[in-house]
Amino acid sequence: MSNFVSPDELSDLREQGAPVRVIDVRWRLDRPDGHAEYLEGHIPGAVYVPLDSELATHGEASEGRHPLPSTETLQRAVRRWGVHDGDLVVAYDDAKGLAAARAWWLLRQAGVDVHVLEGGIRGWIAAGHDVDTADESPEEGTAVLREIGDDALSIDEAAAFPASGVLLDVRAPERYRGETEPLDPIAGHIPGAVNLPTMLHLDADGRILDAATVRANLATVGIAEGTRVAAYCGSGVTAAHTALVLDEVGIDAKVFPGSWSQWSNTPGRPVATGDQPG
């Protein structure tokens, strides 16, 4: 089954009375709290999910901007959303699925049946479906999660990864090359990493391109079925989207959740610049 559901498919599931919980994960670097936009209009019944506090935790700068939450923290959040064992969770956002993919990546590890809505809230509205403005607070769920973390790399594992696989830097090319760094103290990339921005896999509406095109993009950096792959970005959000895309075409990928925000805040870590892995 695909990792994605269309707006019409989601609408049909809801009309059929399927056990579906929809979560609104609106988050962007320039607007990390999307609650106000959620209140302006969201999929009826959708629960707002604050990425920074429920899909991440907070610590020292050397841990990165979005360290993994504990399994206990994630389980409390999932229950707050009203999720029970066996429920289908559909995540969406208004940023081409980048934030929703963080939910997908964590919940999949936890054993939840989770999917991402194609086109996000804009796709839902464009398909002619209604929105609501209520601040949803459902009855608490009872879901029990599996331990998370097996799909995550530590900083040392990320450093060693290029020796045995392809480490993808999925940020914009100018950040990879070290020409600009708007958020972190050092510009550049992890030595050995290759650049393949996750946005290359999407159309203008944020929908994933056809599988043949995605595989062709991956082949340009040496990735095919069976290749060991890991991804990082600025803080572990966009990299989860790359993991989602790769999984959709049958390729497993690990994620370095600390990403560049952890690497650049850890003294002694080498930095490469330019358009080559280094």
Notes on the structure:
There is one protein chain. The chain has 278 residues and is an alpha/beta fold. The chain has 2 domains: 4-126, 3-Layer(aba) Sandwich (Oxidized Rhodanese, domain 1); 155-263, Rhodanese-like domain (Oxidized Rhodanese, domain 1), CATH 3.40.250.10. 30% of the residues lie in helices and 11% in strands. The strands form 2 sheets. It has a 5-stranded parallel β-sheet with strand order 1-5-4-2-3. Strands 7-6-8-9 form a 4-stranded parallel β-sheet, with helices on one face. The chain is globular.
Question: Can you summarize this structure?
Answer:
This protein is of the alpha/beta class and 278 residues long. The chain contains eleven helices and nine strands.
Order of strands, widest sheet? 1-5-4-2-3
Please write the CATH class name of the largest domain. Alpha Beta
CATH-defined architecture of the largest domain? 3-Layer(aba) Sandwich
Q: Structural class of the secondary structure composition?
A: alpha/beta
Mean pLDDT: 97
Number of domains: 2
- First-last Cα distance: 38 Å
Count of DSSP H/I helices = 11
Question: What is the percentage of strand-forming residues?
Answer: 5-15%
Give the tally of β-strands: 9
Q: What fraction, in percent, of the residue positions are helical?
A: 25-40%
* Superfamily (CATH H level) name of the largest domain: Rhodanese-like domain
CATH topology call of the largest domain: Oxidized Rhodanese, domain 1
SSE order, as H and E?
A: EHEHEHHEHEHHEHEHEHEH
Notable characteristics:
9 strands, 278 residues, Oxidized Rhodanese, domain 1, 5-stranded parallel β-sheet, globular, alpha/beta
